[in-house]
Amino acid sequence: MAKLSGVREVIAYHLTQPAVRFLARTSITPSVITWFGFSVSIGAAVLIATEHIFAAGFVVLFSGFLDILDGALARHTNQVTRFGSVLDSTLDRVSDAVPLLGILVFYLFFGDQSTVGILLVCLALIGSPLVSYIRARAEALGLECKIGLFTRAERIIVLAVGLLLSQIVDYALIIALAIIVVFSFVTAGQRLVYVWQQTKTK
Q1: 123 is in which domain, residue-wise?
Q2: Rounded Cα gap, residues 128 and 121, in angstroms
Q3: Active-site residue numbers?
């Protein structure tokens, strides 16, 4: 699991470095990127709720890129602050939920009131923040807790793929939501076990 976390960090580094080097020469701050990314996620939710599913897939991917860009820019320019970290984490949690709420609206009004879809969205709204919450609580105890098969990056990618394929593959979005739900709870379980193992002797 530690290796998987390292792979994620390497990929994120190479994805963000060109943009980071450019932004470092401007007056744009990491907090501006954070707020912009949050706004983009709201835009994705609006697109989903108004049946522009395919376009929403690209917007969700862009929002995910901005999520890793703000932290990379903060570290590159030595602008890491405690409040910035809290703000980023808070808006990340809301940004996770907003597209799912857009999907919920879609299913309620345009998606033939899919019972399965609605149930999966509700479960995703529980499972997704749970993964991040366990990490936050562990870090408050002084434990690094980046392990797990399915972090926010994977959730964003799977959701975006589900949105992009939903126009050509039946039930693509349902399948994507099911994957997010199952692996979010699996990852939450992995992190709980990890924290238990780290604390049982302390």
Answers
A1: 2-199
A2: 10
A3: 92
